Every structure is written in C-alpha cells, then in structure tokens.
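Lab notebook, bench 4. We co-purified these components, and the gel suggests they stay together. Before we commit to crystallization screens, I want a quick structural picture of the whole thing.
Request: model the full complex, all chains together.
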Amino acid sequence: MAEELVRMERISKYFGRVQALNDVTLSVQRSEIVGLLGDNGAGKSTLIKILSGALRADSGEIFLRGQKVEMRTTTDAIAHGIETIYQDSALVTQLSIARNLFLGREPVKSPRLFNRLDQKSMNKAAGELLRRVGITKNIPSTTPISALSGGERQSVAIARAMHFESDLIILDEPTNNLGVEETKGVLRFVRSARDSGHSCIFIAHNIYHVFQVVDRIIVLRRGKKVADYIDPKKTTIEEVEQIITGMALDPNS
Ligand SMILES: Nc1ncnc2c1ncn2[C@@H]1O[C@H](COP(=O)(O)OP(=O)(O)O)[C@@H](O)[C@H]1O
Ligand SMILES: [Mg+2]
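Here is the predicted assembly.
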C-alpha cells in the first residue's frame, strides 16, 4: 500500500493582486518522484517555497504523514525532513564545502566548546559524502564553493539533503546552467533517491529530463492545478506540452 508522506491541501497565495496559487492540492507518496511542470510564472516555485517554509500560504493546510504541520520557517521544514535544492543551491560561496554541508547544523566537539566547530570530523564526513554523490575527483572539503563548477555545487547541495536523511527532497530547476555530464549526475541522483526510500518533487524546464526520472506528473497553469496523476510511461511529451500551454485538458479528468 502506498503511504502518503506529504499533502498540501487547497493552497492559495497572492502577491498583491497577482494570484500565484489558486486552491492547489498536491500529495506525494513515500518513495515517489513527482514531476511538477508548468510554464514560467505558473506557480511552481511558490508552491514548493510554501512547503519548504520559505513562504506562508494565504490559505490551505499542510499535512505530513497525516498530521497537520505549520511550516513557519525553512528550519521547521528541515526539522520535518524536507530539504530543498534551488537552482542556485542556496550555498554560501565564500564558505568551504564542509561548512556548507553542515550549515546551521555544525557538529560540536563538546557542550563546553559549544559553537566551536569540529573542523576535523566535518571535513572527514564531507569527504565521504562527496564520494557518495559521485564527486570522485579528489576535491578537499576545505575548498570554497566558489571554486566549484555548477554541477559540483549541485552535488554538494544534494549531499546535504542525503546526509540529513530527508524524507522529501525538493529540486527546483536543479539542472539549469549545468553541463551534460553534470545534468546526468543530478538525474541519476533523483532516480537513486527513490531506491533509498526518499520522495522527491522535481521541477525542471526540460520536460525530457522530467520524463526520464519521475513516476507521476502534475501540471500547474496560472496558479491552478490543471493535471495530476499523469503517468509518463503512458503519456507522450507532446500531450503534456499541450496541457502546459492550455491546448489540451487533463487526460485523467
Ligand atoms: N516574491 C514575489 N513577489 C511578487 N510576485 C511574485 C513573487 N514570487 C512569485 N511571484 C509571481 O507569482 C507567480 C508565480 O511565480 P513562480 O511561483 O515563481 O512561478 P514558476 O516557478 O512556475 O515559474 C508569477 O506571476 C510571479 O511573477
Ligand atoms: Mg520557478
């Protein structure tokens, strides 16, 4: 039996007079990879920012494993096992890989030395994590993020999400500005996330990328959910494109 991990129920959000989201309900099962598609401005980022605590909805509710939760801040969401990877990864470029991996959750040596970071154990854990996400080049974890390529930065952000055993990993256009090999790495990660029991919400401009990795597709158009439960194995890319642009209706409705 599929188990519902997250449910966003009847979410609405205005920015001034612009209604970014209109009564959107979205659910994600455990170990499910959901693709969230829609044209620019459809409301995708707004929806996932509400789930990740970066924005508050004007109305609607969020349930985690059936329990109603409040996502007041991104820290709340992280504490609930929801990790978000944005296009720009939200990494601090001046800080090292290791510091970024543990940002806000740094291991400390002892309670007495609270706030003194345990650099050595951080660097060691960072090295192991980087190998897990496929950075095989020997990059010292003391390297600043600014010295890394786009793909390597995304890998660091992904390593962060994996390390903290997030139940739900949200990727908002993670492959923008990435090279071919780097993109492959991100797609490989999304696939492997399912195998290790994680759930994902995957937003990407490139509909081909979405088709390659997701179990199910949801489409937003101008703040409204216009399709859900699209099975990429039974639907063509052209059909989904028509739903995105409003030329066709949800095949399941
Ligand atoms: N911080 C903001 N202030 C004002 N309007 C915003 C803000 N964020 C998003 N919007 C508007 O909300 C709508 C949805 O945007 P967004 O969620 O970013 O869409 P998507 O991610 O699908 O491209 C757009 O009309 C956008 O201009
Ligand atoms: Mg967006």
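The chain has one domain: 4-245. Worth comparing against the SEC data before the next meeting. The longest strand covers residues 4-15.
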